[in-house]
Amino acid sequence: MAALSAAFVTAPSPPFPPSAAPSAPGPSSEPSPPSGPSAPRSVEPDAKASESPWIRPAGAPPTVFAHRGASSAAPENTLVADEVARRGGAKWIENDVQPSKDGVPYVLHDATVDRTTDGTGAVRSLTSAELDALDAGSWFAPAYAGARVPTLAAQLADLRERGGNLLLEIKGRHSRAEVARIVREVGEQAITRRVFVQSFDVPSLRYAHELAPELPLGLLRDTLDPDPVAVAKELGLAAYNVSHVALARRPEVVGALHAAGVAVNVWTVDTPARWKAMDDLGVDGIITNRPAELGGWTAGRSAG
After folding, report:
1. Are 88 and 290 in contact (CB under 8 A)?
2. Is 67 assigned a catalytic role?
3. Is 295 inside a domain boundary?
4. Which of 18, 135, 199, 200 is the most exposed, having the fewest neighbouring CB atoms within 10 Å of its CB?
5. CB atoms within 10 A of CB 48
6. Domain contains 87
7. pLDDT tens-digit series, residues 67-86
8. What is the mean pLDDT of the segment spanning 213-225?
9. The domain containing residue 166 runs over which residues?
10. Dist. CA 246–CA 253, nearest whole Å
11. Which among 12, 175, 3, 1 is positioned nearest to 74, based on CA atoms?
12. Alpha-carbon distance values, 89 to 1, 84, 93, 265, 274 (Å)
């Protein structure tokens, strides 16, 4: 723990991926396959598709997104998990953001603090002082005792100092004011070009776009929309981020979205067999709890 807490500075990653990875250790639920396939509408190739910085070039590996940091090796959504991910080569950290009772954005996945801290209660029912006092490391391993639930501001400052990019998930329904607080904190750290916003909640994405149209947006889905391209165009998405289980049922969606200039990222994928399956489908990014292992796998496949 002490060694990982020491300063570990890396050069900042480029603001956009040249090509080439978010769901969690602890209880990690795989969504059920969608009830039935529905072909996407026919899409003419979009000349702008080749200009998208989020669609990987031919022959490049998929981007590795470290789901909640290196969450298979350290307590999820903590700064130490982010550091472990960086040491393992990850250029992108994925997180979950939700507000405290007094409106401070914190990095924490569950609606309650019960699973990943020594406290109890809903995140939104606890003040920032109460959240700051929680131990977010002991549940994972005694060596991580004393790790804290970071504020979004603390995570952004850490990324600004140490390098890396953030796939920021707005967790659950947020008000416009709550999204505005998130956007403001990103701007205050002057790393807007290193942040990609995603959410399952469409209104939250709309608020983010209204408040900061320069932020790229990704829609999270556990099942595919009947017409993902129409949804992506209507929301102005840079990426459509879907469960790998759902995508495997309708692989043609990747090409349709690419033709419309929209990237495809999948979650949460933790085995070589599934990495290969998703890589073969042409996805642009893979969200994983095992970022170092996925990075090694992609490097080996590219070399081999």
Report:
1. no
2. yes
3. yes
4. 18
5. 9
6. yes
7. 999 999 999 999 999 999 99
8. 98
9. 17-25+39-303
10. 10
11. 1
12. 19, 9, 11, 19, 20
Of the candidates 109, 209, 244, 258, the residue annotated as catalytic is 109
Chain position carrying tokens 């009830």: 35
Retrieve residue 124's tokens.
């939104």
Cα dihedral angle (106, 4, 163, 115), rounded to 10 degrees? -30
In a domain, 246, yes or no: yes
Token pair of 82, please? 């982010």
Sorted by sequence, the CB contacts under 8 Å of residue 182 that are 6+ apart come out as 97, 105, 152, 168, 170, 174, 208
Enter the pTM of the model: 0.85
Q: Where do we find the tokens 């070399």?
A: 303
Handedness of CA 113, 183, 95, 88 (dihedral sign): negative
Which amino acid, one-letter code, is at 265? N
Q: Does 265 fall in a domain?
A: yes
What is the structure's pLDDT at 49? 53
Nearest CA to 284 among 245, 247, 246, 231? 247
Per-residue pLDDT tens digits for 157-178 = 999 999 999 999 999 999 999 9
